């Protein structure tokens, strides 16, 4: 058989050749088009550079300022540099080169070659001066960069500390920083929802402006709380929460030295810890539960557990419906419980020593903070006695009656009566801090021990500052039979607190204690008009955010 001849090698088709030629033509056209674009862009850039000052072309000090890229502050490296706290800058630092970080509080350009920037760190402020000078390594571009920053931006400044010729009124530190380098770590938005200067004004400033026909912006409470992260930066707020920290620390320190042991009790519980309707109810793994109204039951169970003396600092939850100046749905409770040997006045004596120690500590160690609060919210120092005054509830009722205020003898004091009694006590005894004891049993919690001589009254007390109650305390019932009886009388289902009642059947010593709201102590010591001022992020009947 004859074989077929081998096929010739394949060659490109006419269509493929035409396609390649077409692509080459398009590519050349595109190259020419791109070249024309580049030429136009180059000419435009050249014209722009010609229109700008010669210094803009190449700033020899460009490395001394600018925005720091995020990647540079993502824990990239440890440089070994040392930052100085603004509050530590004083006359002794004069002549020293420092590196500081703060928020840009004010930016004031004086000219193209000079500007002032005030940086703030916590409660301290310092004035930074930029003067364009080749010797200092500061250019006009650097001055312009600094003044272009938005208020509240986070800024690093390197410079030399100098002493001003005249005292500085606008800053806490009486030194200046001659700026050599300035870097923006993080820019704030150009327009903030509230102005810090507005939020920091006192009532006296508003009154003065009104007299002069000026109208200043007033930042209302809800607006402050909506933008709390900014509001907290005001000097008064910075001071308030430092005072709060001191109160808490002194509470712990004093009780620790009195042989109290710190505990932490659960906040999710099966039944009401105080009785009444002011409880937040929830479902806990298919079971009904609630948020603890106090650590009361667990403080007592800890005493039954042999600890002798305990204290706790922790959140307390009350389903308050009152939109008042002194009530919150969540606050920080300062609680204590202790064995008593003979009389519940042993608890009162602890309170006496504790709060006199707290007041002295604040007056002696927090003068700067108190003065700062006083500038925005003026108040008179709290009057108190070295030995705290104690009055019976009946004596208090008698004082009110003699002053023309009728009170139900077996009822509780309302807010108006408390304030009036506070004024009467101050006038008669010269103190704004006192203890009122032996309250009617009907107005106290179920676990309160009745009086031995009249069961209509109780071994209980309240403590007042400036005419407002801050502490409730009492001797507790330590026998299970009476405890169960009182719980039922107060409308509490005894089965929900069975483990609590049962703990007293194992042998429980006589004991008593007290609870106080941290926010209320600070509010009244500083005579502030609203407890929301002393709560970092308040929770009231209307507010769950931020």
From TrEMBL:
<dbReference type="InterPro" id="IPR045864">
    <property type="entry name" value="aa-tRNA-synth_II/BPL/LPL"/>
</dbReference>
<feature type="compositionally biased region" description="Basic and acidic residues">
    <location>
        <begin position="32"/>
        <end position="42"/>
    </location>
</feature>
<dbReference type="GO" id="GO:0017101">
    <property type="term" value="C:aminoacyl-tRNA synthetase multienzyme complex"/>
</dbReference>
<dbReference type="Pfam" id="PF00152">
    <property type="entry name" value="tRNA-synt_2"/>
</dbReference>
<comment type="similarity">
    <text>Belongs to the class-II aminoacyl-tRNA synthetase family. Type 2 subfamily.</text>
</comment>
<feature type="compositionally biased region" description="Low complexity">
    <location>
        <begin position="1"/>
        <end position="14"/>
    </location>
</feature>
<dbReference type="GO" id="GO:0005524">
    <property type="term" value="F:ATP binding"/>
</dbReference>
<keyword id="KW-0547">Nucleotide-binding</keyword>
<dbReference type="InterPro" id="IPR004523">
    <property type="entry name" value="Asp-tRNA_synthase_2"/>
</dbReference>
<feature type="region of interest" description="Disordered">
    <location>
        <begin position="1"/>
        <end position="59"/>
    </location>
</feature>
<dbReference type="GO" id="GO:0004815">
    <property type="term" value="F:aspartate-tRNA ligase activity"/>
</dbReference>
<dbReference type="GO" id="GO:0006422">
    <property type="term" value="P:aspartyl-tRNA aminoacylation"/>
</dbReference>
<dbReference type="InterPro" id="IPR004364">
    <property type="entry name" value="Aa-tRNA-synt_II"/>
</dbReference>
<dbReference type="InterPro" id="IPR006195">
    <property type="entry name" value="aa-tRNA-synth_II"/>
</dbReference>
<keyword id="KW-0436">Ligase</keyword>
<feature type="domain" description="Aminoacyl-transfer RNA synthetases class-II family profile">
    <location>
        <begin position="241"/>
        <end position="538"/>
    </location>
</feature>
<dbReference type="InterPro" id="IPR002312">
    <property type="entry name" value="Asp/Asn-tRNA-synth_IIb"/>
</dbReference>
<protein>
    <recommendedName>
        <fullName>aspartate--tRNA ligase</fullName>
        <ecNumber>6.1.1.12</ecNumber>
    </recommendedName>
</protein>
<dbReference type="InterPro" id="IPR012340">
    <property type="entry name" value="NA-bd_OB-fold"/>
</dbReference>
<keyword id="KW-0067">ATP-binding</keyword>
<keyword id="KW-0963">Cytoplasm</keyword>
<dbReference type="GO" id="GO:0005829">
    <property type="term" value="C:cytosol"/>
</dbReference>
<dbReference type="GO" id="GO:0003723">
    <property type="term" value="F:RNA binding"/>
</dbReference>
<keyword id="KW-0030">Aminoacyl-tRNA synthetase</keyword>
<keyword id="KW-0648">Protein biosynthesis</keyword>
């Amino acid at each position: 058989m004859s074989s077929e001849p081998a096929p010739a090698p394949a060659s490109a088709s006419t269509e493929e050749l035409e396609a390649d030629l077409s692509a080459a033509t398009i590519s050349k056209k595109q190259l020419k088009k791109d070249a024309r674009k580049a030429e136009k862009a180059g000419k435009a850039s050249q014209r722009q550079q010609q229109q700008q000052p010669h210094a803009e072309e190449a700033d020899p000090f460009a490395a001394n300022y600018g925005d720091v890229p995020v990647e540079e502050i993502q824990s990239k490296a440890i440089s070994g540099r040392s930052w100085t706290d603004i509050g530590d800058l004083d006359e002794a630092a004069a002549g020293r080169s420092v590196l500081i970080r703060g928020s840009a509080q004010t930016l004031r350009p004086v000219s193209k070659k000079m500007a002032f920037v005030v940086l703030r760190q916590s409660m301290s402020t310092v004035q930074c001066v930029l003067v364009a000078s080749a010797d200092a390594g500061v250019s006009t571009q650097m001055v312009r960069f600094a003044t272009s920053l938005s208020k509240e931006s986070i800024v690093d400044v390197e410079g030399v500390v100098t002493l001003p010729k005249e005292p500085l009124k606008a800053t806490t530190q009486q030194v200046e920083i001659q700026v050599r380098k300035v870097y923006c770590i993080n820019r704030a938005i150009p327009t903030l929802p509230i102005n810090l200067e507005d939020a920091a004004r006192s009532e006296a400033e508003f009154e003065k402006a009104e007299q002069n026909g000026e109208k200043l912006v007033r930042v209302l409470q809800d607006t402050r709380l909506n933008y709390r992260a900014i509001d907290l930066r005001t000097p008064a707020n910075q001071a308030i929460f430092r005072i709060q920290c001191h109160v808490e620390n002194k509470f712990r320190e004093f009780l620790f030295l009195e042989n109290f042991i710190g505990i932490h009790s659960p906040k999710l519980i099966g039944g009401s810890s105080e009785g009444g309707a002011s409880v937040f109810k929830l479902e806990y793994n298919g079971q009904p539960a609630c948020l603890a109204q106090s650590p009361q039951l667990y403080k007592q169970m800890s005493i039954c557990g042999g600890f002798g003396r305990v204290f706790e600092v922790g959140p307390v939850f009350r389903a308050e419906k009152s939109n008042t100046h002194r009530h919150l749905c969540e606050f920080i409770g300062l609680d204590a419980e202790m064995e008593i040997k003979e009389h519940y006045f042993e608890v009162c004596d602890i309170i006496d020593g504790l709060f006199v120690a707290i007041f002295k500590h604040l007056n002696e160690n927090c003068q700067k903070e108190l003065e700062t609060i006083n500038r925005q919210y003026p108040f008179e120092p709290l009057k108190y006695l070295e030995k705290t005054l104690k009055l019976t509830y009946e004596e208090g009722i008698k004082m009110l009656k003699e002053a023309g205020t009728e009170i139900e003898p077996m009822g509780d004091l309302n807010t108006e009566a408390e304030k009036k009694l506070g004024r009467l006590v101050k006038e008669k005894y010269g103190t704004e801090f006192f203890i009122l004891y032996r309250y009617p049993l009907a107005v106290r919690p179920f676990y309160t021990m009745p009086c031995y001589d009249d069961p209509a009254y109780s071994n209980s007390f309240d403590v007042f500052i400036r005419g407002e109650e801050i502490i409730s305390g009492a001797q507790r019932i330590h026998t299970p039979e009476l405890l169960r009886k009182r719980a039922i009388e107060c409308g509490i289902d005894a089965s929900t607190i069975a483990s609590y009642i049962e703990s007293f059947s194992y042998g429980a010593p006589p004991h008593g204690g007290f609870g106080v709201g941290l926010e209320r102590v600070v509010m009244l010591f500083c005579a502030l008009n609203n407890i929301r001022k002393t709560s970092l992020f308040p929770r009231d009947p209307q507010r769950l955010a931020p």
